[in-house]
Write a structure and sequence with these properties.
Elements: E1 22-25, E2 28-31, E3 33-38, H1 48-57, E4 65-70, H2 76-83, E5 88-92, H3 109-115, E6 119-122, H4 125-130, H5 135-148, E7 151-156, H6 160-164, H7 168-179, E8 189-193, H8 207-225, E9 233-237, H9 245-249, E10 256-259, H10 266-274
Parallel strand pairs: 3-4, 3-10, 4-5, 5-6, 6-7, 7-8, 8-9, 9-10
Antiparallel strand pairs: 1-2
Helix pairs in contact: 1-2, 1-10, 5-7, 7-8
The structure holds 2-phosphoglycolic acid.
Amino acid sequence: MIGRGEGRGKAFPKGRDKPRNHQFVGGDFRMRMLLAGNWKMNGLKTALAEIRALKRGLVDETARADVLVCPPATLIMEAAKAAEGSPIAIGGQDCHALASGAYTGDVSAEMLRDAGATAVILGHSERRQYHGETNPIVAGKMKAARRAGLMAILCVGESDKEREAGHAIRVVAQQLEASIPPELGASDLTIAYEPIWAIGTGKTPTTADIGEMHAAIRAMLGKRFSAGGETIRVLYGGSVKPDNAAEILAVPNVDGALVGGASLKAADFLAIIRAAPRR
Ligand code: PGA
């Protein structure tokens, strides 16, 4: 479920007592997968046709996984309308730490929420790289997401140099530690592990490397949130495509994917969603 709790988003309108992404399967505590599309700075109004196509394609897929599309801010309101009556939730790609004020060009978490978003991607490496977002800045935005009732999808990941130097896990641990403010609870949070060198490059880590990192993230979340750490979805992102999705989504502790380029076309995104194991 995206945007949990009282007064949160209606993207998944059938209320349940338990968070919807938690399923007990044969005694295992496992989460329903989340497939999230990050459109980045792509999409004019014509791209809303992709949301409609996704909606048609998902008619029989509702039980499989949760689906989120994060279009540019200009399309959120129309995207939310186009997604109405479907299992597709809509999210933002960034937000300001404050609710309103003299910050020309910025968009607040409350504005995203008001436009129909129930989630927001925060700390994406492109924001860190091109907009100088540090961990403390990201932490401020995480608080804003919580304040507005948005599920925060926190992106973490190492550069190629950091991986080659053997520091990948340490870098991710630091990002997690410094980007998650104390106010945040496990139910407010999704993590996306996105190695920077895999984003938009067609390169992906080996499944062993993904598994190692996701297990490390799971352990870190356990330390931070105790049992709650088990309930936080940890997505993989970076060059997820229809032809590698099944392999990546089968890795232990991978609870879904954050998909950039391949989420722009409904047919590709649907193929990725269909590759998700049913939980
Ligand atoms: P990609 O982007 O799937 O195009 O590599 C992923 C992301 O940046 O979220």
